[in-house]
Protein 1
Amino acid sequence: MAKTKTAYFCQNCGTQHAKWMGQCSTCKEWNTIVEEVIAKEEKADWKIDTAPRKANIALKVKDIEIQNEVRYNAVSTELNNVLGGGIVPGSIILLGGEPGIGKSTLMLQVALSMKHKVLYVSGEESQTQIKLRAERVQNLNEDCLILTETNTQKIFKAIQIEQPEILVIDSIQTLHTDYVESSAGSISQIKETTTELIKFAKETGTPVLVIGHINKEGSIAGPKILEHMVDVVLQFEGDRNHTYRILRALKNRFGSTQELGIFEMRAGGLREVKNPSEILISKKDEDLSGTAIAATLEGMRPLMIEVQALVSTAVYGTPQRSSTGYNLKRLNMILAVLEKRAGFRLGAKDVFLNITGGISVDDPAIDLAVVVAVLSSNEDESVPQNYAFAAEVGLAGEIRPINRVEQRITEAEKLGFEKIFISKFCKVSQKETNIEIVKISKVEDLVGLLF
Ligand code: TYD
Ligand code: MG
């Protein structure tokens, strides 16, 4: 018997090392290097019949003909937008997300609603389980085939028989190929099976949608290399205890990464949310203190989001600060700014902050709404529900302009807000809008205007 060959792989970054080490020399993570069996032999038998490939000739840019790109319609408008207009033939799309967030549901719904022959390969659920789920989501593509299999060679055999137009793999971590001996989910298996899928996609023009698990740091489990290899990396995020889910493109070779899709998880599967702003703002009968509405942008999309804060005297010695959906470090910075620049004594107060809907916001334009929510709770005075806020707050307490302010103003106006507070340095004039634009330059200005 041939000697088994092994190599050492970092489970974090995927680097191959000659010997075992305590710390990976590439990514500097500790205890991530694991010995894996690699027994690479000649491999060729997965091939699907394709015409012999011609050598490529270098062309001048002006001589390259643009073939009218046909994209497969993913049916879901939200998904089509995120992909930049549909699924490109021969592309390989990776969908990452935390366990239970709805990756399998989304892929199954897409597979079931498409007008093409789809092969859905699951290594995680049985055919019966998938059938039960399919009945809940209630779309029926007669040409959607379900296969429970984890061996890539057997998957390619099934593909040869069925000739699907689109392939879905749930999930890459369950696949294994005969040519690598380590267990499924190991770095060498992930690398190898992805390479096989990419070859298959490119040579047959079949798009492959692959689900990938996410590790505790939030990146797709397995080597970062995986993200470099595929054409599109999508991320499905949200809070499992809430119903809203956001689909983002982290990388897209065929379109922008600015678009994002919003879904709601219902008993009957995922539904697209067409008017997210209206849903994310909770309806109230009376004005309550501690809430403020931010006009944010998620990708290209304007989104009105409600920020809630609770400021109370600390019961224990050290005040607590907690934040959901907003960066805690940034909240601490905002509190320091309010203390130093606006004279609010918040040092001995507990501060809790929450972005409603269970989504997390990175847009700096939410800063001003955070300030207003904190001050409103601290003063116990409400801010009218029809005021919106959109500005970044700097360390000196200055109110800074943010990008695409016109788009935010338009959204606020559309939803019936009466006033929007922005930075003095934004170049927009009052003339074109019905909403009153209030320009401020320092956090201190807010106090006089609101409380
Ligand atoms: P799933 O797609 O299995 O998640 P992932 O593949 O990302 O691990 O989704 C699982 C969750 O979705 C589960 O907690 C139940 C919920 N769900 C619904 O609420 N409604 C539905 O119709 C379906 C199919 C799932
Ligand atoms: Mg799943």
Protein 2
Amino acid sequence: MLRYVTTNPGKVREAESYLADGSVSQLEFDYAEIQADELAPIAARGAREAYREAGEPVLVDDAGLFVEALDGFPGPYSAYVEETLGIDRVWELAGDLEDRRAAFRCTLAYCDGKGFAASPDPVDRGDRVAAAAAGPEREADGGGDDAGGDDAGGDADVDGDQESAGPLPVKLFEGYVPGRIVAPRGDGGFGYDPIFEHDGETFAEMDTERKNAVSHRGRALAKFAEWYADR
Ligand code: ITT
Ligand code: NA
């Protein structure tokens, strides 16, 4: 059984569309979120920790909202900012900006205690190029420790981690969606969805299926599901 590691049931609802019925269940495990300015090392570290805890295959989902004119803030601090300021105050901050472009990013990190040597690379470069172009917070190709070894092929398997015990391999899948910050609209979704507009609709105005079709998480999940099915 694949465990989707999150305290957020909204994420699990979105993930279920990509995985066979009954093949995934939520593991409410609060892994340590290390301080980092990239999602990938946080997710990779979390996946190792969760795998050690669960003893079965795990998928960690680390996401964030990156506002361009705020140099990518709140980014990896999105959960803390939602808890402390709340999305209405994020809207107030962003409402004063002339440029309200923003992006959601999601990094999925899979760990099952085995290696992935012969697997095809699931992180396509298109995403990364788009991410680099749209986000001042990301320098070209995300060089967090755990994402190390990136080359032209994008994210390789991640297996070097100096600070945690042992080189448990982790596979990363990334998704990105551009949009802009708007006054809150809609009551679906979760988190920042009411203030994130994509193609004229906020994510909170979309049902799960529509959000999945365009969202950061949907893109990452589609890549994961494809790789997972024929790994
Ligand atoms: P876990 O870490 O337990 O998975 P979380 O909700 O804290 O739960 P993240 O750290 O990945 O998850 O999320 C960072 C913040 O971004 C948090 O405030 C989320 O509500 C928000 N967020 C993540 N994905 C989102 C999405 O698809 N739409 C709106 N907000 C989202
Ligand atoms: Na979190």
Protein 3
Amino acid sequence: AGGPEAGEAGEAVQTLRRVFGYDAFRGDQEEIIEQVIGGGDAVVLMPTGGGKSLCYQIPSLVRPGVGVVISPLIALMQDQVDALRALGVRAGFLNSTQDFEERRLVEAEFLAGELDLLYLAPERLRVEQTVQLLDRGKISLFAIDEAHCVAQWGHDFRPDYLMLSMLHDRWPDVPRIALTATATKATHEEITSRLRMDGARHFVASFDRPNIQYRIAAKSEPKRQLLELLRSEHAGDAGIVYCLSRASVEKTAQFLVDNGIAAVPYHAGLDARVRAANQSRFLREDGLVVVATIAFGMGIDKPDVRFVAHLDLPKSVEGYYQETGRAGRDGQPSTAWLAYGLQDVVQQRKMIDGSEGDDAHRRRLAAHLDAMLAMCETVECRRVRLLAYFDQESGPCGNCDTCLTPPQTWDGTVSAQKLLSTVVRLKRERGQKFGAGQIIDILLGRKTAKVIQFDHDGLSVFGIGEDLREADWRGVVRQLLAQGLLAVEGDYGTLVLTDSSGEVLRGQRQVPMRREPEKAARAAKAKS
Ligand code: ADP
Ligand code: ZN
């Protein structure tokens, strides 16, 4: 039954069954595939594990010619091509890891029409030879994977992606499909305009990953906290642990190994062979933990990653979403756990202040960080906040820490006033700058060497905060930062007032706060 349209859809489904061995399309796959088979452009926003690959693989098989896939993930091309070849799909790739002879072979296959899919690193298009090669073959479509890399203010900008607007100029009749797993409204718009996809149809799937349980804990002893999580909930499970620095990657991996957990490090400073070996062990072995910087993970297709743990604060909500999204691609229950503390904020501010680029760039980075902080300190459902960041609405999920154990809130207005007035007092001491540590010592009435050195025990605010514990005060600082009522600047994490601080000091604004959990408070106390 049906006209030509039904016939085309039939061909897509047949290909799905015959080549990939699946029964039916999921979500928007079928509509997306029909759009591209019909010669139209598509912009696809779909979460990790949603099934983006088939959206260009099937049209490449159905349409005459070769589907050209632009991907920044050079390290994965070999694996992707091998997997396709195992299914009988004629696939090849061109990137900088190949020697002349290997490249020539692929080029010959392309020209002879012996390929269904050709994976291409974006920087290849800078080479005129590549462009001429593409001109001489028949192209069925362009797929632009990880399309958010074109967004200049996004978290993963790649300059080579800017060139991709040339695809439309040079091959106006070839349909294009841009795909990404993370995009705020702004990034989505940037993808559309920079890639000149004005006439495209847009497919925005729900970004919700219901099987991922989001949890954010106060950081006290991060490695110990991680170990407890792995032992109590994820014994023998595969997972990824993200750390900010290479040094902490190494230390954390060693710590896990010392405690009987199979773990390997992964960061850009490791020898390429070690890195490749660790990545392939992670993909092939059961229950291995990779401790990594964010250099690890994009495009990694391991379905049974049971947890993603962050020992340091991600730089943006987009990054957090994308990194945690590597858990549970198989749909089984998985954990996204993040430990975060005041030191993270200080450290990241420092990195932003020292970063290259103009003020506007630094302001963007700061805005990303602020959104991430607000996510950490929210008393609302984490998922609601996360999806709201991507302009998607949802109700409380029942599967995040704030839903499962609703945080107690308290009226922190008076405490905020005490802390902010201490910051005001110290500001008057010219040339001297103090971070959270000194301010908390003053509030708690501690006569430390540094307190005595600066006569801070003589201040009227000395000891006015003895009603709270140190961990509570740290929580107060974090929440004031997250609410934009306090800011941190400079190398030493100096605390400074913001434009809104005055409202609190003058009693014009209430400051609701999230109570610090008893456990974190105890651990921080034991340490001090
Ligand atoms: P993404 O690129 O969006 O993260 P993938 O394309 O890697 O997702 O797909 C995720 C997993 O789901 C893969 O193992 C893929 O084979 C599988 N998959 C995709 N579409 C279907 C489908 N229609 N039916 C069954 N499995 C599918
Ligand atoms: Zn929730």
Protein 4
Amino acid sequence: MLEIKNLSAGIEGKDILKGINLKVNAGEVHAIMGPNGSGKSTLSSVIAGKEEYEVSAGDVLFEDESILDLDAEVRAHKGVFLSFQYPVEIPGVSVTNFIKTAINQIRKAKGLEDMPASDMLKMIKEKSELLEIDRKFLSRSLNEGFSGGEKKRNEIFQMAMLEPKLAILDETDSGLDIDALRIVSNGVNKLRSKDNAVIVITHYQRLLDYIVPDFVHVLVDGKIVKSGGKELALELEEKGYDWVKAELAAG
Ligand code: ADP
Ligand code: MG
Ligand code: MG
């Protein structure tokens, strides 16, 4: 599904990613871990197509096609979802109405008619029940006064409704309390299937106690320096990132 080849990228002349190689197949969950400032968020931004980052070498293929020249919006339409793509606060626009509009905009861009209201309602009901999201939440104004956990709930609901092929969840280093951890991990676990793939980016080993990844990659200073199975997350929890750095230094 996703193939990253020798990717180097940076911002304002600063090199951040320094030759990343990564393959993600449908049905897989990959975790990317690493110390603060190692380039995790930059990697997710480059995959999703945020314009401020400059790619200096390499390529990103999605379903065998380079996506580097495509706008973030077009990538999203192809099925690439980045968490917090829609962090805006919109008073008076509910969680539900926002996602309805987003879905119909994507359909319009693909030359399709609006989703029939009855189908939309059915989908909202299905997904909200699956994720145990109550109706009251769905009628709240988008992001207005949301707690950390509620922001996560909204994000996972958006992901469930948009049904992306590739979801990238960049769990930033703050605000992941137990409630938020549970919401994100339950959501991912319920939404994972043989047809989609998930990349979970986190500084925290703890998240991976809840979302069990198929592969774990450690990013240090813009390079993937170690890859392994889920046991690598446990090893990191025990020994910390300094262990990986020391191993690297020792060659
Ligand atoms: P992580 O998500 O692993 O904490 P980031 O990708 O956010 O790392 O950042 C990697 C490095 O790039 C850091 O040194 C950070 O300061 C720098 N960086 C990221 N975004 C910007 C930006 N917009 N302007 C300048 N430097 C940036
Ligand atoms: Mg950071
Ligand atoms: Mg980050």
